[in-house]
Amino acid sequence: MSLFRRRSRIEAKTPEQLRAMRRAGRVVADTLALASRRAVAGVSTGELDALAEDAIRSAGAVPSFLGYHGFTGSLCISVNDEVVHGIPGERVLAEGDLVSIDCGAIVEGWHGDAAVSLVVGGRDRGTPADLALMDDTETSLWAGMAALRPGDRLFAVGDAVEASVDASLDRRRREGVPGVEVYGILEDYTGHGIGREMHMDPHVPNYGVSATGPTVPSGATLAIEPMVTLGTIETRTLEDDWTVVTGDGSRAAHWEHTVAVTDDGLWVLTAADGGAAGLERVGARFAPLAD
Asked: Exposure string (b/e) for 161-198, b if CB count within 10 Å is 16 or more?
């Protein structure tokens, strides 16, 4: 059954609850920044995971992912053609790898969830196609968040993400970026509500659909997370029952933030600056309750 046939209500949070979620979001932001700095050639994904778990627990938080339905890591680390849910382990990173790092943390029962993509060794080590994919996926994340307004339809997020990805692809083709022929927006993996649980209703698609979705209330908290490939939208899951890879071996990027929607604007709970810089770029109003 299509997940769009049911009109799920979005849980609204009080200002005090949003501030509590911001504390979890800051732990996620700090942990992702640390893991990104340490994601260098010669480091294993398992070593990054151990570093992240220590950082999360040292901040007085609990990893959201560890033990979730049997998952064995505190991070999801997905490399090259791995889109999402990569299990940390013995794999050693190499210069030029395109890596997404997904992190969740719980503080006093409240969750934060975010993901970043990076090239091991820095941007100078990335191919033009990988850099374009990474940047354009991040751009689509901010475009999707900018579509969130109290009283509006939730699935405007997917419209905005898809429009952003399409516009970026057109621009890359005009620029003649080698290796960028198509972008695929994954349909089987979506954003979600978040709060006292990591994954809550509703699903938040990253592409345009005919349904409107539920109405966004003031106080809504949502995890928006586009996943885009340099090829197909088809995926398969490896024998570990977690790691999702592209069906054609093309590379993928994944970006995510947890965002709060209020009458005054948006507060990106998992961004170090609360989303001030990113929201300004897309013309959305930055409205922190506290920081």
From this structure: bbbbbeebbeebeeeebeebeebbbbeebbbbbbbeeb
Rounded to whole angstroms, how far apart are CA atoms 221 and 13? 7
Return the sign of the alpha-carbon dihedral for residues 224, 230, 236, 241. Answer: negative
Distance (Å, rounded) from C-alpha 43 to C-alpha 194? 31
Containing 26, the helix (H) or strand (E) segment is helix 15-38
pLDDT digits (tens, 9 = 90+) for 186-241: 999 999 999 999 999 999 999 999 888 899 999 999 999 999 999 999 999 999 99
Tens-place pLDDT, residues 14-60: 999 999 999 999 999 999 999 999 999 999 999 999 999 999 999 99
Q: Which residues pair with 220 in a beta bridge?
A: 12, 261
